[in-house]
Amino acid sequence: MFLVVNVLQVFVFDAWHVPFSFTVLIFIILILLYTYRGGIKTIIWTDTVQTTFMLLALVVSIIIISKELRTSLADLPTLVYKSDYCRMLFTDWHDRVISSRNFSAVPLSLLS
């Protein structure tokens, strides 16, 4: 919600000199009215539409990245796997990246 209110404030309401706190208040009131009038059915439909668009954006992003890298969608996983950016755990003791963060990050990641 914070991101949406900020975008509205910067691109719309700042030009009208509307205070940020008023924008947040109006946004909260609209959410409450929207939920009260439509109930849980409205929230479920909203979440369904939002999830659909997020998955569509993911697919479009992967296609655009593939085109920008001038590779096929089939070759993209191999390209990512061979990249240094894909490495999560560095086991070569002579590697310059090895530090105490590796030793603390692994046990902490297993806890979460």
List the helices and strands and how they pair.
Layout: H1 2-13, H2 20-68, H3 76-82, H4 100-111
Helix pairs in contact: 1-2
Structure description:
By secondary structure, the chain is mostly helical. It contains four helices and no strands. Helix 1 crosses helix 2.
Q: Mean pLDDT, nearest integer?
A: 84
| Class of secondary structure makeup | mainly alpha
What shape does the CA trace take?
Answer: elongated
Largest sheet: none
> From the alpha-carbon coordinates, what is the Rg to the nearest angstrom?
23 Å
Note the run of SSEs as H and E. HHHH
Total number of strands: 0
Contiguous low-pLDDT stretches (5 residues minimum) are none
Helical content class:
over 70%
Strand coverage percent: under 5%
Helix segment count? 4
Distance between the termini: 26 Å
Key traits:
single chain, 112 residues
What is the compact description of this entry?
With 112 residues, this protein is mainly α. It has helices spanning 2-13, 20-68, 76-82, 100-111.
